[in-house]
Fold this sequence. Notes:
Radius of gyration: 22 Å
Distance between the termini: 85 Å
Structural class: mainly alpha
Mean pLDDT: 86
Amino acid sequence: MYEPIRTKSVHTSADDADFPHRSREDELDIQLAGHLSALLAVTDELGLTAQGDRIAEQVARLRSAPPARHAGRSDAPAAALHRRAHTLAGRALVVAASRADTAVAILAAEAMDTHTAALAAAAPAALVGAP
């Protein structure tokens, strides 16, 4: 009455699959390198070369290859770039803390402080011109 199943079920275990598996540490390394690369692009756009060089060192360590440096400009306001960099540094800090990478955690915290200070310095200047 029913035709027998001739193909493998889609519900078979993935443990039998022949694709490469990555460990949690490898996944966190990839995620952290991505956050740091994005932070590097914004940092380069802001012209913070010393901080950018330190970030590039960590990306190279995580990826085993030097990162591509950002050469273009987006013409975004500096305040928007500092907010974006602060957010990216926060994400990198969370991942670095979860993988217990002290060097990157310190670097990310310092980057957050730098961008917070830049935003605080820009805020009173914006209020000076207001009526």
